[in-house]
Specification:
mainly alpha
Length: 294
């Protein structure tokens, strides 16, 4: 267990910029923007009948935070896996790790473990910070926009609990659903190093183009592989499910959102994606073990 801890800790230290420092800068910029808006010219709001309540506005802010940080997490992990599987070759650290009684599979497994646990948890922490900042923003702007007010603390806590609970499940399912692309770019990184990110797009694009050419027989060219990729990476839960719930006035329900997310996922394909990720990690470890000496 100590070796696993050391390996995962190394990943955190080497890649904390994207998951600690950059998010901190974004949150600081958000706070600065809120402060600037608060001290700017007075805001005049004319609220019509049936307009959004303060609670609905806070719910919307929290949901935007979930969507924004989940997108950041997935993009950050994509670049993390595109770099981490070959990062130890840049400074000759591979010589050190190969001299240790740790297999290449264990080393790459630690990278996969860090990407599946430590870094998503850090982003989840930034989501919690953002929702707290969002509530403080509603309180501040209640001073400038009395028509809207601010949700009372108990209402805000109830909203926060519902959104964060659903957000945790959404983060976890997103990691599982998009795991194949992480395994794909990580496997390419082991072989092609810095070229892995452009190749992760170029190779599927070439396969789709080749299928269109080979199967074209008049009419509109189609690619079954391209349609599969489009479906696979179009997501499993989106605004078309959340917006009606928010606009209905009934508030966000974590239980409902979680049940909808669980029902929306194609579980056999999710399991197949995890199997592909495991296979890609194993193949990358075998390549490192057999072909890379330094």
């Amino acid at each position: 267990m100590k070796s696993w801890y050391a390996l995962v800790q190394r990943e955190f230290l080497e890649h904390r910029g994207a998951f600690v420092f950059a998010p901190a800068a974004l949150v600081a910029a958000l706070i600065a923007a809120i402060a600037l808006a608060f001290v700017s010219a007075p805001i005049t709001v004319v609220r019509g009948a049936g307009g959004p309540t303060a609670a609905t506005i806070y719910e919307g802010l929290c949901l935007i935070g979930v969507a924004g940080w989940s997108a950041y997490m997935l993009i950050g992990l994509y670049f993390y896996f595109g770099d981490s599987f070959s990062a130890d070759r840049k400074n000759n650290a591979l010589l050190f790790w190969k001299s240790m009684p740790q297999s290449d599979l264990k080393i790459l497994g630690s990278k996969l473990l860090a990407g599946a646990t430590i870094f998503p948890l850090l982003i989840l922490g930034w989501l919690i910070v953002t929702t707290a900042v969002g509530y403080l923003a509603t309180v501040l702007f209640a001073v400038r926009i009395p028509e809207f007010g601010a949700p009372d603390p108990l209402t805000a806590i109830a909203i926060w609990f519902q959104v964060i609970t659903a957000g945790i499940v959404y983060f976890a399912l997103s990691l599982l659903w998009y795991a194949p692309i992480f395994g794909w770019v990580g496997g390419l990184s082991t072989v092609f190093r810095g070229w892995s990110i452009p190749l992760s797009f170029a190779i599927p694009a070439a396969a789709v183009a080749a299928e269109m050419v080979l199967t074209f027989s008049g009419g509109e060219p189609r690619s079954a592989f391209g349609e599969f990729l489009s479906w696979r990476f179009s997501g499993f839960y989106g605004e078309d499910q959340v917006a009606p719930m928010l606009l209905s006035g009934g508030g966000v329900s974590a239980a409902r959102m979680i049940s909808e997310m669980v029902a929306a996922i194609d579980w056999p394909w999710l399991a197949g994606g995890l199997a592909f990720t495991a296979a890609a990690t194993w193949a990358a470890s075998e390549y490192r073990r057999r072909r890379i000496e330094a």
